[in-house]
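FAQ: What does the model actually see?

It sees only this:
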Amino acid sequence: MAEQVGVMAAPRYTVVQTNVKTGAVVTRLPVTGISFTHTLNAAGSATVGVPLFAPEANPEVLSPGISGLVILRDGAPVWGGIVWTASADIAAGTLSLGATGFHSHYKGRVFVNGWTARTLEQADILKSWFAYFNADNGIGTATDTIKATGAKRTTVWTRYELKNAGEAIEELADNINGFNFRYVPYWVTANIKVGHRFVMSSRTGSATRTLTHRANCDVTQVSYDSTALCTVAYATGADKGNGEKLVGIFENAELAARMPERVMVGTYADVKETQTLIGKAQATVNAGSVPTAIPELTLYPGEFGPLDFVPGDYVAVDVDAGYVAFLDEFAVTECATSVDANGTESIRLALASKELFSNANPS
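And it is asked to produce this:
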């Protein structure tokens, strides 16, 4: 049969089980379906179906909380994390594995001895945190791509606070001049060992690409939300010891001229510097500066892959469908991929107003 010209072969997906502490490949899993998400500054998740009576579905070696899971697309890792749940449907003969990205490990780690870092480059703070947790029964997160950003931070916690490491990373990212982050799996040794690294990226986002309804995507849903609008933001911090708390305040006079006063209050009980609280308040004001349109869209098959849009990237969406008519820029908050039993790939993007991320640059 003559070879068809211009027909792109469907990507081939496979899933490997790993030792979550070392990254060593344990086995390749037979699968009945795959879905996974990359989520902005969060762990992301995956669900993998496995035949219940397959020899690889062995509870002695495949165990929630202990086993790792890496999804491969044409042999390259595109998602990695830790299996936390398993649900067996005996009647259907399937086992559903629920996994969450490597950030979920750090949601279960705390600074048992406290931590003090004063006016240090945030990249160096991150490296020291990962080194600390890697050295004590960790998962070996690589930090080789973390580079200096020019932003200096102060983080101070006592041992009695038992500060959660995952929250600490998220709070460090969510500041003026903060950053986006993700955990990227990669082959250390092909088919033998998978590593993963913490990757930072600028909150200024990527170069904008345009997605057009009915051309290269289907805009399936758009919701409009004004609940985050904020003319004045207060951020309260640690107790000063006399019953009073530190407070940071930021206002949006331009928005206040257009609408009645609307106040947002954030609580950051472990923040001990007023300037940090002012930055938190400014981020709240920036994120609440405009009503938001929140679209969801599905990319046309064969147009893009699951790593073509990293959470935090910017896209322009062009749609003209009655009430929904705009050409605006958005930030990708989630990229969700599903693969059915036939190997058919579907990729969905969840988006948020680009204005929500203006706290990357102080106004």
